[in-house]
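#onboarding

Welcome to the new folks! Below is a worked example of what a typical request in this channel looks like: someone posts a single protein sequence, and someone else replies with the predicted structure as tokens. Don't worry about understanding the tokens yet, we'll cover that in week two.

Example request:
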Amino acid sequence: MINDTQKAFGIYALKGYQNKLLHRAQIVPVSWIGRRIALLLRKAVMFSKPPIIDATVDDLKLRIYTQDNVSERKFLFMPQFFDSYERSFLKEMLHSGDIFVDVGANAGIYSITAAMLVGNTGKVLSIEPNPIMMERLNFNAALNSFSERIVTEQSCVSDSEGVFDLTLDDRNLGGSSLVATRSARKISVQCYKLLSLVEKHRLPRIDALKIDIEGAEDKALIPFFEKAHNSLYPKLLILENSPHDWKADLPSELKSAGYQQLKITRMNQVWKLT
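Example response:
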């Protein structure tokens, strides 16, 4: 799908009954039956297959691409089910002037949420290798007047540096991966170690870090904790729960670094530095 960053926000807004169905899906109760109702409402809206939808969700203005990214589609129709614990905890932990790092930033849902929380004196470092997703992130940041707060880095994070193949999933661009073995379209991307990027952007600390890189979280985090001064350890850590893909025992490494696991949600593990 080709991004549209030229037309003014609102041109793709839903109207009439579709807008009413969207609003209803966004306010159903958080329960099993609520999820089923929201999915049915989403199906009704998507029957006409609108490829792009402009909407305000959780006070964030977003241009959503409905056909090729699960995260965007889910957040649009079911924000109350989208990482609800993680985002609520982030809102509790992040304050004005804080620093947030988003590894695997996708279309920027976490990054823009964090930018709203850290204010003009804070900073968000958003790392995303896929150029299509980076364009969406930058567009959404500009929509919310957060371009000055969000610094973007179009690259991958891994345990070594150089140019590597990123496997793209055209049905779900948020599922692009360095470690995927399936046969699919690939692009060459620049990779850095996490500490190198932290040092490049001169971050004095990290108040919270979210990492979702499709099973390569251990490759990014373990070298960081081995080399970084403990003053750089994120106070809050949200990572995709992918133990079946990890080649090393990441939870043990986090415990050794001084972290306590607070919760395992449907999609993520949440850790806090003690």
